[in-house]
Design goal:
306 residues, Rossmann fold, eight-stranded mixed sheet, 44% helix, disordered N terminus
Length: 306
């Protein structure tokens, strides 16, 4: 657990050290959009190769799907294998991981969702896992990446509608943004989402003066090729037309609870907020993938019935 917290804090501590050493705007900006994703790659290595996972029936297929700018994303699909009591098709759930991580993070939950009858789409975000790319854009590009993945898999017949999305941390912020731009998505479950790119980035450099902070945010956007204002879960929530379930730990020190609450409050459609009083960013997920799978299933089924 201590190692996980250190890994998650890497972008924050590295930039704080940079500030104290008087480095350039480019130095800070690169650390906002370029991260050490070794943790997620290691988790994928432990799971095994896609060929091995397909041979053992743990995933159904692997894909290399190009996005609009040509970045190839590594994607796994698990076909729904409903229990006898639930033999009706449930559609597809896309699961989105957080920063520094990979699709391996929610592999256990993906297996459970498949057993409930859902097709499951798992992807490594750009610059993460086995996907291509150098920079993270906090959802500005990733929301369209997710849409491109769904487009490709629907066209190939590998998955079926309706589409639902689940995400954690950065993946939660991306999930909300994705749902706002893809009308095929019928419900969102967001675990510990941040409100927007600026709020997330501000925690990396808490003591920097506002003028210089705006410089590094703008420069980070230039380096990664995106507009920082377009990476906003809170703006996307206000445009949602589908049910939103937000789950957040009250003592989250990485993405504070008020972020999730603000996303929840901004949502225009049906919404629900679940707060865990004694849990933080990492502890919220520990040993609870079954709980999250069960709540996602209830949330998605209720949304489908509306």
């Amino acid at each position: 657990m201590g190692r996980r917290i250190k890994t998650l804090m890497y972008p924050i501590t590295s930039v704080i050290l940079a500030v104290s050493s008087g480095c350039s705007v480019d130095f800070y900006a690169r650390r906002l959009v370029k991260h050490n994703t070794a943790k997620g790659k290691t988790s994928l290595w432990w799971l095994g190769s896609p060929d091995k996972l397909m041979k053992t029936g743990r995933i159904s297929s692997q894909h290399r799907i190009p996005t609009a700018d040509g970045t190839k994303l590594d994607v796994w699909v698990i076909h729904g294998q409903p229990e006898k009591a639930r033999n009706e098709p449930c559609g597809t759930v896309m699961i989105l991981h957080g920063i520094l991580d990979s699709k391996a993070r929610f592999f256990g939950m993906a297996q459970q969702m498949a057993r409930k009858g859902y097709n499951v789409v798992m992807l490594d975000h750009r610059a993460h896992g086995r996907s291509e790319g150098i920079y993270t854009t906090f959802g500005a590009k990733e929301k369209f990446d997710a849409r491109d993945v769904i487009d490709s898999l629907l066209k190939s017949g590998d998955i079926a509608e309706p589409i639902y999305v689940f995400g954690q941390s950065m993946g939660a912020a991306i999930a909300v943004q994705y749902a706002a731009v893809d009308p095929r998505c019928k419900a969102v479950m967001a675990v510990a989402p941040y409100t927007d790119m600026r709020s997330a980035a501000r925690r990396f450099v808490p003591f920097m003066n506002p003028e210089k902070f705006e410089e590094i945010v703008a420069r980070g956007g230039e380096l990664a090729g995106f507009e920082p204002d377009e990476a906003s879960a809170i703006l996307a929530a206000s445009e949602l037309k589908v049910p939103l379930l937000v789950v957040h730990g009250l003592i989250d020190a990485i993405v504070p609870h008020h972020h999730g609450k603000a996303v929840y409050q901004a949502a225009a459609a049906e919404k629900k907020l679940i707060t865990f009083p004694l849990l933080g960013h990492v502890s919220l997920m520990l040993g609870r993938q079954r709980w999250f799978a069960n709540h996602a299933d209830r949330h998605f089924r209720r949304a489908n019935a509306l």
